[in-house]
Specification:
Chain lengths: 112, 113
């Protein structure tokens, strides 16, 4: 089975801290994604990557950056966390040419 | 991107067929319809997808109208474990670097015992 693993299920950080959310997939997928999910707003795409060192902005990239140095790993970075970035963050991956995304279990971030 | 419209919530009795509608009236000829669901506290899970023909797999059936402006996801014998938020998504045909999916707010399906 495809496995997408997010490094932390729950994090609590303080305003202004730098936050790293890590995601690893074990199926050699080319494409990886970061979404955030908030009540009433559904899932919103932050960034995605279709190859190592490649990245594309999604719908809400402001305040975030990403890194993809290895094919299996896609990191989401909050340079200076703010309270409005309190959210559930979901990582996903897929092969090119398919819309079948595999999601991790999510990382719930609270910024105080 | 084509947009989709789904009811906010639905109930279905356990053991009955759950029929979840989706409107995608602006869909283009090369765009697929995808369905995902999200059970509480988990990431979304792929269910099924189709272009213009009806599709069936072990989880569900997808019925797409002839004009492709709407579709229905059918869970033939709903169980309590089918309680989830169901997302209908329209996705462009494959283009390198264009694999992203836009999720809306979906339909919250509650299976009633």
């Amino acid at each position: 089975d495809v496995k997408v693993t997010q490094s932390s299920r729950y994090l609590v950080k303080r305003t202004g801290e730098k936050v790293f959310l890590e995601c690893v997939q074990d199926m050699d997928h080319e494409n990886m994604f970061w979404y955030r999910q908030d009540p009433g707003l559904g899932l919103r795409l932050i960034y995605f990557s279709y190859d190592v060192k490649m990245k594309e902005k999604g719908d809400i990239p402001e305040g975030y950056s990403v890194s993809r140095e290895k094919k299996e790993r896609f990191s989401l970075i909050l340079e200076s966390a703010s309270t409005n970035q309190t959210s559930m963050y979901l990582c996903a991956s897929t092969y090119s040419g398919t819309g079948e995304l595999f999601f991790g279990e999510g990382s719930r971030l609270t910024v105080l | 991107d084509a947009k989709t419209t789904q009811p906010t919530s639905m109930d279905c009795a356990e053991g009955r067929a759950a029929n979840l509608p989706c409107n995608h009236s602006t869909i283009s000829g090369n765009e697929y319809v995808y369905w995902y669901r999200q059970i509480h506290s988990q990431g979304p899970q792929y269910i099924i997808h189709g272009l213009k023909n009806n599709e069936t797999n072990e989880m569900a059936s997808l019925i797409i109208t002839e004009d492709r402006k709407s579709s229905t996801l059918i869970l033939p014998h709903a169980t309590l474990r089918d309680t989830a938020v169901y997302y209908c998504i329209v996705r462009p045909a494959t283009n390198f670097g264009n694999e992203k999916l836009t999720f809306g707010t979906g339909t919250r399906l509650t299976i009633i015992p």
